[in-house]
Amino acid sequence: MKTIIYTENAPQPIGPYSQAVKVGELVFVSGQIPLDPETGELVKGTVSEQTHIVFKNIEAILNAADSSLDKVVKISVFLKDLADFEEVNQVFELYFKSEHPARETVQVARLPKDANVEISVVAASE
User: Fold this and answer.
1) CATH number of this structure's domain 2-124
2) Mean pLDDT within 81-86
3) Is residue 10 within 8 Å of residue 57, measured between CB atoms?
């Protein structure tokens, strides 16, 4: 059985998808770009600043699904420029201090709203 996860503390989807879907003990969070949850507008700034916004939004979605960042098991990172890889890694170190989740990072030609970063996660639920 699947449950659609929704919270007003994270941005509204900008297309026909859910913020997250919970199936059994897993939560699948859709790709998040650095959008302000209140305005739906892209938050400008460095890739580091944008990555922090993305994690804040992911954390809000996971909390709505009875999960948390420390239960993330898989992360997919999409970067507009792979030269930002090290800067993104520095932000990751702040959120994942031990028991790092599995992850892949790829460079893409373009992201929605011309964001620099998009991240999706899979997490265990409580």
Assistant:
1) 3.30.1330.40
2) 97
3) yes
